[in-house]
Please model this.
Amino acid sequence: MKKQIGTQPTNAFIFAEEKKMKKIGYLIACILFTCLAAVAQPRGEQGERIRAIKADFIKERIQLTPAQSSRFWPVYNRYEDEQRDVRRKFRSKYPQQQGGSRNEFQSRQFVDDNIEFREERLNVERKYRDEFLRVISAQQLAKMYEAERDFKRMLLENLRDRGGSNGNGNGRGRRGGPPPGR
Model:
């Protein structure tokens, strides 16, 4: 009976995988701890801290080389700023307004504006797609979008587990409606 070569992982491979898993576990623990601590901070400081954690999360996921990193972050920061501006514009027009308090005309306007808001966000993604692809691979870009989605989900779950961001302990977030995704 011949011994198959290459079917058993080497000690170096196992060690590298264990080290990688420890690194990911450490990153997740840091993110969760920081998110908990961030909720107790003033809004601006909290936002900056969450953005820094998000950047670390994305950096870990897409595995930028040093050369890519120096070119990626300026593009990503512009992309994030434009996405934030689009969100702020929409939220300023509809600040925490409940759907039940709108009449038919207002509801129709909200629906139309919401579609326009989503189109604007998609247009920002399209605008930056080519810029990102000049700096990182398509695989890395796909991982970046996944990392953004996963980070948002993790942050929302963390807030929901803490009883919502409005501090009333009902798990309903800032608007008093059902938690996201439920």
Remarks:
- The two ends are 56 Å apart (CA to CA).
